[in-house]
Amino acid sequence: MKSLAELQAIKERTLKNMSARNDSEDATRIVVGMATCGIAAGARPVMNAFTEEIARRSLKGVTVSQTGCIGMCQYEPIVEVFVPGQEKVTYVQMSAEKVARVVNDHIVNGNIVTEYTVGAVAK
Amino acid sequence: MYRSHVLVCGGTGCTSSHSNEIIEKLESEIAAKGLQDEIKVIKTGCFGLCALGPIMIVYPEGCFYSEVKVEDVPEIVEEHLLKGRMVTRLLYEETVQEDTVKSLEQTKFYAKQKRIALRNCGVIDPENIDEYIAHDGYQALEKCLNQLSTDEVINIVKDSGLRGRGGGGFPTGLKWSFAAKNAADQKYVVCNADEGDPGAFMDRSILEGDPHCIIEAMAICGYAIGASEGYVYVRAEYPIAVKRLQLAIDQAKEYGLLGKNIFDSGFDFDLHIRLGAGAFVCGEETALMTSIEGNRGEPRPRPPFPAVKGLFGKPTNNNNVETYANIPQIILNGADWFKSMGTEKSTGTKVFALGGKITNTGLVEVPMGTTLREVIEDIGGGIPNGKKFKAAQTGGPSGGCIPAHLMDTAIDFDNLTAIGCMMGSGGLIVMDEDNCMVDIAKFFLDFTVDESCGKCSPCRIGTKRMMEMLEKITEGKATLEDLDKLEELALYIKQNSLCGLGQTAPNPVLATLKFFRHEYEAHVVDKVCPAGVCKGLVRYYIDAEKCIGCGMCARACPADAIARTDYIAPGHKLASFAINPEKCVKCGACMDSCKKIQAIYKK
Prior knowledge:
The structure holds two protein chains of two kinds.
Chain A: H1 4-18, E1 28-33, H2 36-40, H3 43-56, E2 62-67, E3 79-82, E4 89-91, H4 96-108, H5 118-122
Parallel strand pairs in A: 1-2
Antiparallel strand pairs in A: 1-3, 3-4
Chain B: E1 4-9, H1 12-16, H2 19-32, E2 39-44, E3 56-59, E4 63-65, H3 73-82, H4 108-111, H5 129-134, H6 139-147, H7 150-160, H8 172-181, E5 188-193, H9 202-209, H10 211-225, E6 229-235, H11 239-254, E7 259-262, E8 267-276, H12 285-292, E9 316-320, H13 321-333, H14 335-339, E10 349-356, E11 362-367, H15 372-379, E12 389-394, E13 401-403, H16 413-418, E14 427-432, H17 437-451, H18 457-474, H19 480-496, H20 500-504, H21 507-515, H22 517-526, E15 540-542, H23 552-556, E16 562-564, E17 577-579, H24 589-593, E18 600-602
Parallel strand pairs in B: 1-2, 5-6, 5-9, 6-8, 10-14
Antiparallel strand pairs in B: 1-3, 3-4, 7-8, 10-11, 12-13, 12-14, 15-18, 16-17
Helix pairs in contact in B: 2-3, 6-10, 6-13, 7-8, 7-10, 9-11, 10-13, 17-18, 17-21, 18-19, 19-21, 21-22
């Protein structure tokens, strides 16, 4: 170890891997429905796509977690996004391909991808 | 990236309740479900809430599972990790809310705590140097080596008001400045991890949960006083701490954070571990250094103080584990930050090991000046089984006790000394109305009699004589004159012993005599033990009105002390039994045999 810069590099690299351990109140939560119906409809690749996309962009303050049956089995895989201080947004019939857009438009830029939401699909 | 981190406590407490097996089972179950790339299992240091171990925390939800068993693991993996449904029955009760869980910091146990020395315990993986670095590790060392002069480092520590956490409370910065002043070709930094007080385990938990902070602090001290070598003297009874510390030293060497030319500053520092064989006296600094040198661990007179002539005859600085654990944070955040916590003369925080008759057994760190009541009632969860608080023993065999009427005393070095008590290393043993204070004093004195090294007579012979007097008292054979003699001898030993062991050995007796003299007098004058603990003074009785005359007790009695009387209680068919006190050996076997009827009691 020769310099502070080396120390900082290790710090940042490791913090990125430890981000799942920050259960702060103001984190954005992405919750994937992972009941039997969700898993059967392909929720697992969706969830993995979220974690990968977040890691790839080094996003801070975003966690991915799972929940049980959300109750609208015909719309699985369902993903709920909780941004602190805002109404929750429910995305339905998600796929790994749709994930990149949700992360880019909604999580990063704050624009809800209306066409994927339950409101748009259920019409 | 892992979407979920599962933290399992790998401290000594949880390890002994099988946390290692839990980790193995977790890993195999996770692999069986194909989740190994999504979920990471991390073994951490002590979370502090040892009473509820083994402890497991699942992030990102922050679920706090307590008293987890190996058999519970498949359910946690299947339900929580795979399907996202928390296993409510295993959640720590206080954290359960309607639709989510309360975070750990919001529970009563943690809310009033302020964690500085323990800040990384239960948070990082102690066997991974990167995680320590991620939590600002080794930045304080870099700051010292490349931005601060040795005097500046010592002044920051001085200004912070940090005092020795091993019990003495000597100002740390002042100690460093003594060792720094004495020029020599070689100086040493020593860490005292020979935590010997029964009931204290904060040093062990720091070494187990955050070993790198001790390495960093010792290197900082080495820079400040001009030492290039350090020794950590740790008990061989702490295998997990020793293993993690060694691993941490190896990792630090690999990164060049120990060794030659650290951070390109020209400063060299190397660290060694020495194992203690468990002699209590080796926690005394001169005995400790003698032991490191390879000799029999016996103290020597001071002066010369270690700062002048210490390890191998060279100037040496000696601090306790918890003291060192505060150093990196003080360097990073400044003396004013540290001073903003605690009281005027006792700054910062103190770790206490809560034990005895208390709901939340474990480790807590609170700002100095917190009252005993807050520690016991709010953080510790009070006394179990609805019993009444009687006293808290602080400082182990060198300390005293705080009685119930002083429960609102703000705990700091000077307040405790003022009431004739001692901070000690921070063991806090809580006692309720069922504890006999004479018996407690006897317990601790028994420990020091065993552990006296024998070098000086006041301690070797004096403590033994005190012990004999206490035995006389608990057997009901003492007179009031004996009480005065006991006190006189205690004060004599305190003044005339060679080292800290002897000088403090009479403290438990003196403190209990001061606050609970009436209990001693009850033993001496009335020949009773008010708490019903001292066997010699207890008498067993059979309630003739309750006794159904079954004779179970008479058969259980090994001394043939129980016989049938000719009294038949109203409503009973058989004559009751009675105990002959002349023959009774007070073993309690009769009472155990009468659990159903409960006609036997002791007084």
